[in-house]
Write a structure and sequence with these properties.
heterodimer, A: 357 residues, alpha+beta, six-stranded mixed β-sheet, five-stranded antiparallel β-sheet, 34% strand, B: 294 residues, mainly alpha, MetI-like fold
Chain lengths: 357, 294
């Protein structure tokens, strides 16, 4: 079932949580709503589920207007961040709940419910814990129960609100791979809310990046990472180094750097700034071209892990630069803290105006 | 975080052991004496006085016609007031904790009103409204309905003074539980009734029972408000606490204390029941907290 979000707005008092957001999720797709806390992603998810009413705009489920439908009527599965398992019911009873509360006519027979619960227990690999209560389970197990419970009613849409947010890093990674495999198996249209860019980029078919109640960019993980549409997206999807400067007649001057401005920047003529990812910086001992390098002093080196992180202080204005180089390059350069080196951006992304605070 | 807490707790304990056990003993002794003198002694005195003339006289005093009638009226008032406040308390707590609406804070404040007002004043309010010279007094008299100096007045006063107990017990507990479970049930297709009976009620049952116990003990023991509206008609509008006072004023000490011993006994039973429910609720809170931190 497809989801269409059309011009949805929602405010709480004077706070605008969601501002005129439109988004489309195709049948069978897994879309991640990614953004910092307070960006409106959870509110939007709750509006899709029918747990909140939008102030304006419409929600279409399978091209049908569902804005006025209650949560119960929308047939969506919802997985809460803190699981929201029924604490006085055991695992089986939790999973069976959605089937047991169906109106008499639509309800499955007892034996069918039992079979369905068993199937779901197998799906989430918790057959041995069927009689346990939520308090007797680990966080990861609880989240799988919550997922099985949501899937029991065969929802046409699965909505997940920070499903792995409360779990530790290792469990989180396992569980999100498992979720991706599960999605490939059952192909239920899914929306996943997360503030973890790694999670979104790894799991989702498409990512919608939200900021301050608005969608900044929607695209495949590769698209949004490689071609961020806005400074916010660029900044949010990884570490960045910021270079202040100006654009004049097609040339950008960012401190000592001189860069050709992009084609559409001919008419900017004014303040501009450039973003460079740490791994797009090259460190050299000698300066080959003074207009393409920045002189800086190494302040800190962290060599643990496959790549070496080097923190440098610019000689001209004292601001810090973070670079990431390969271990081989690091050994070749034989860098030490205090060394004077030259930094060369391999790829720089220019934006007009001033950087966001 | 947990380590810093344990440090904060263990360091003073270690010190006090080395400082002096005398101070500790003195403090414990003072507390025991205080409780013994102000709580246990009077409690014992009630029973000593009640059984002063032997078990037979006690039983005779307790089974006296007017005493039995007072017991009946007390239980009747309690049996009407508590279920009414149970319904109201549940509805108010459900509304306050699960929904947002205008006037929510006003409702919370109003729930507390009977606790802030002196019981005598709450009795007087009903006299002013339903009494012969009150707002509806004339109309009620014309239709031959008696509220003040009759059983309905006593029930009304009891409802008023026990009004906050159940709601006040439930609101903080339900707030701490949040509404995620209810939302999960709603998304799974449960309607309002099913959400209430299958999710909310099982979660709050101990807390609710605790509120009922508190409200019942107050309903049985209420003196001030009931005294104002009762009219003290023996055998008709006397509740047990009022009956104790009348007997006492008539220098019938033995009978007064016999009746008082019934109230005291009820209080002791309430305390035990309360303790059991408290223990159950704590266990429930502990498990729900454990749930949060896994």
């Amino acid at each position: 079932m497809s989801i269409q979000v059309r011009n949805i707005s929602k405010r709480y008092g004077s706070f605008e949580a969601v501002k005129n957001v439109s988004l489309e999720v195709k049948e069978g797709e897994l879309v991640a709503l990614l953004g910092p806390s307070g960006s409106g992603k959870t509110t939007l998810l709750r509006i899709i589920a029918g747990l909140e009413q939008p102030d304006s705009g419409t929600i279409l489920l399978n091209d049908q207007d569902a804005t006025a439908h209650s949560a119960a009527k929308r047939r969506v599965g919802f997985v809460f961040q803190h699981y929201a398992l029924f604490r006085h019911m055991n695992v089986s009873e939790n999973i069976a709940f959605g089937l047991n509360v169906q109106p008499r006519g639509a309800r499955l027979a007892k034996s069918e419910i039992k079979d369905r619960v068993l199937q779901l227990l197998q799906l989430v690999q918790l057959e041995s814990l069927a009689k346990r209560y939520p308090t007797q389970l680990s966080g990861g197990q609880r989240q799988r129960v919550a997922l099985a419970r949501a899937l029991a009613v065969q929802p046409s849409v699965l909505l997940l609100d920070e499903p792995f947010g409360a779990l530790d890093a290792k469990v989180r990674k396992d569980l999100r791979r498992w979720l991706r495999r599960l999605h490939d198996e059952i192909h239920v249209t899914s929306v996943l809310v997360t503030h973890d860019q790694e999670e979104a980029l790894e799991v989702a078919d498409r990512v919608a990046i939200m900021n301050a109640g608005q969608v900044e960019q929607v695209g495949s993980p590769e698209e949004v990472y490689d071609r961020p549409a806005t400074p916010f997206v660029f900044d949010f999807l990884g570490n960045v180094n910021l270079f202040h400067g100006r654009v004049e007649s097609g040339r950008a001057n960012l401190g000592p750097l001189e860069v050709t401005a992009p084609d559409n920047a001919a008419q900017w003529n004014g303040p501009a700034f450039g973003y460079v990812r740490p791994h797009d910086l090259e460190i050299t001992r000698q300066s080959q071209d003074s207009q393409a390098t920045i002189e800086a002093r190494v302040t800190q080196i962290s060599a643990a892990g496959p790549r070496t992180k080097v923190e440098l202080k610019r000689s001209d204005n004292g601001s810090l630069i973070e670079a990431e180089i390969t271990k081989a390059r690091y050994q070749e350069l034989a860098l030490c803290a205090g060394d004077l080196v030259f930094v060369k951006p391999l790829s720089i992304r220019l934006f007009a105006g001033s950087p966001p605070a | 975080m947990s380590t810093s807490v344990t440090y904060a707790r263990t360091i003073p304990a270690v010190r006090s052991r080395s400082a002096s056990g005398v101070v500790r003993l003195a403090l414990i002794g003072a507390a025991v004496l205080y409780i013994g003198f102000f709580l246990l002694l009077p409690l014992a005195a009630v029973f000593v006085q009640a059984f002063e003339k032997g078990v037979k006289a006690y039983l005779a005093a307790v089974s006296e016609k007017e005493t039995l009638s007072a017991i009946r009226l007390t239980l009747l008032a309690c049996a009407i007031a508590v279920p009414l406040n149970l319904l109201f308390g549940l509805a108010a707590s459900w509304a306050i904790t699960k929904f947002n609406f205008r006037g929510k804070n006003l409702l919370i404040t109003l729930v507390d009103l009977p606790l802030a007002v002196s019981p005598v004043v709450s009795g007087l309010i009903y006299v002013l409204v339903f009494g012969l010279h009150g707002w509806f007094g004339k109309w009620l008299d014309d239709h031959d309905v008696r509220i003040i100096f009759a059983v309905p007045g006593i029930v009304l006063a009891t409802v008023f003074v026990t009004f906050p107990f159940i709601a006040r017990e439930l609101i903080p507990f339900m707030q701490s539980q949040g509404k995620e479970e209810e939302e999960a049930a709603a998304v799974l297709g449960a309607n309002g009734w099913k959400i209430f009976f299958k999710i909310t009620l099982p979660n709050i049952k101990w807390s609710l029972l605790y509120g009922v116990i508190l409200a019942s003990s107050r309903a049985v023991g209420e003196f001030g408000a009931v005294s104002v509206v009762s009219g003290h008609i023996r055998g008709q509008t006397n509740t047990l606490p009022l009956h104790v006072e009348i007997l006492y004023n008539e220098y019938n000490f033995m009978a007064a204390f016999a009746a008082a011993s019934l109230l005291t006994l009820l209080a002791v039973i309430t305390l035990i029941a309360k303790k059991i429910v408290e223990w159950k609720t704590e266990k429930q809170i502990a498990t729900s907290e454990a749930e949060e931190y896994v």
